[in-house]
Amino acid sequence: MVKIFISTGEVSGDLQGGMLINSLQTIAKEKGIELEILALGGEAMAKAGAKLLGNTTSIGSVGLLESLPYVLPTWQIQRQAKQYLLANPPDILILIDYPGPNLAIGSYVRKHLPEIPIIYYIAPQDWVWSPLPQNTRKMVEITDLLLAIFPEEAKYFQKQGLAVKWVGHPLLDRMKSSLKRQESRENLGIKEEQLLITFLPASRKQEIKYLLPIMCEAASKIKKKLPDVKFLIPLSLSLYRQNIEAAINNYNLSAEIVEGKTLEAIAASDLAITKSGTVNLEIALLKIPQVVIYRVNPITMWIARKILKFSIPFMSPPNLILMREIVPELLQEKATSDRIFDEAMNLLLNQKRREEVILDYQEMEENLGKVGVCHRAALEIIEFIYTDKNTSRNKDN
């Protein structure tokens, strides 16, 4: 029996964790290995076969003030996880994204259970910016092997002294069988000639507060210019439905909420107006033009800029991969309804601009690796368990 503990958080981490677990199960079956997987994650990981010790999909946040409501629930889940790990040491610990909580758990395991190897999959984005350089130091201290998803991520952490394998981006696996425009429109009951914009405001509660109102304002302006446009809003978590419905009603906006059909809603669209995050890559891989926005509490942004010297070249993954702006992104004070409207009109009505975006998406995709990412990552994990239990670091020090 091989015991694996996987820790992640938020909707995107749960998605990546679920895909990884599916591949781990497949490889284990092929090799005749019996697996026991316990996890901090969500429904996708549970569906893939993990036993959840705690659900972490709805307690994530970005920003200092925004994180305060989640400090206690995060601490409680971490405390529970540490107690379990101490009483039931696994054969390996897999950390997926979710840097703050995961680095804390990894540090605890390295100190109290030094014999347990730790693999980090989808590392903190210190290779982009590092207002908290201790993240990199902690990664080097606790990690036996990093499975990197971006080439630049791999190069950065290799320079810091970490053992790194670049496996590629797991969304390539998810998107390989994704629906096309016609299929998606048929599934959603949308006519081919219908102009469709999909809004993707949130995978975190704070994003509903800071992003959805400005999206609704922009939608009202777009509707005045293009009266026949239809709006879709996919739900990342069902618990956000009430807040989204309230915002739609408050702005007297005609928009349809769809649950469990996020990829179909994106694929069916002529344009996506979206938060910054993993979803930007999904949109790009489906070749849909997008406007990316992000806002946090103004005090949080002031602290980040003035005290932490926060500075990033870009915030959305498609732009970060090529290190140039291939999709418009509007951060903080630039994220106004007027700017969103202007960028949306350009992408909807300027055919040359749309074609440029699609060409850039193709170049971006070439930098993500090849399909089979989750299989490669799972194979690295299984092989590490059997061939490298004690050689990657001196567990006795």
CATH superfamily placement of the largest domain: Glycogen Phosphorylase B
Could you name the ranges where pLDDT drops below 50 across 5 or more consecutive residues? Answer: 390-397
**Strand arrangement, major sheet:** 3-2-1-4-5-6-7
The second-level CATH architecture of the largest domain is 3-Layer(aba) Sandwich
Mean pLDDT: 88
Q: If you consult CATH, what is the topology of the largest domain?
A: Rossmann fold
The percent range for strand residues is 15-25%
> What's the overall geometry?
globular
Number of strands: 13
Question: What structural class is derived from the secondary structure elements?
Answer: alpha/beta
Q: Calculate Rg over CA atoms.
A: 21 Å
The share of residues in helices is 40-55%
How many DSSP helices?
18
How many domains? The number is 2
Largest pleated sheet: 7 strands, parallel
Measure the end-to-end span: 28 Å
What is the CATH top level name of the largest domain? Alpha Beta
Q: Your description of this structure?
A:
It is a single chain. The protein has helices at residues 10-31, 43-48, 64-67, 71-87, 99-112, 134-142, 151-159, 171-175, 181-188, 205-225, 241-250, 262-267, 279-285, 298-307, 317-322, 337-349, 351-366, 373-387, and strands at 2-7, 35-41, 51-55, 92-96, 118-121, 145-148, 164-166, 196-200, 230-235, 255-259, 271-275, 290-294, 329-331. The chain folds into two domains: 2-173 and 371-387, 3-Layer(aba) Sandwich (Rossmann fold), CATH 3.40.50; 177-366, 3-Layer(aba) Sandwich (Rossmann fold), CATH 3.40.50.2000. Helices cover 50% and strands 16% of the residues. The strands form two sheets. Strands 3-2-1-4-5-6-7 form a seven-stranded parallel sheet, sandwiched between helices. The protein has a six-stranded parallel sheet with strand order 10-9-8-11-12-13, sandwiched between helices. The protein has 397 residues and is α/β, with parallel strands linked by helices. The radius of gyration is 21 Å and the shape is globular. The longest helix has 22 residues, at 10-31. Mean pLDDT is 88; it is low at 390-397.
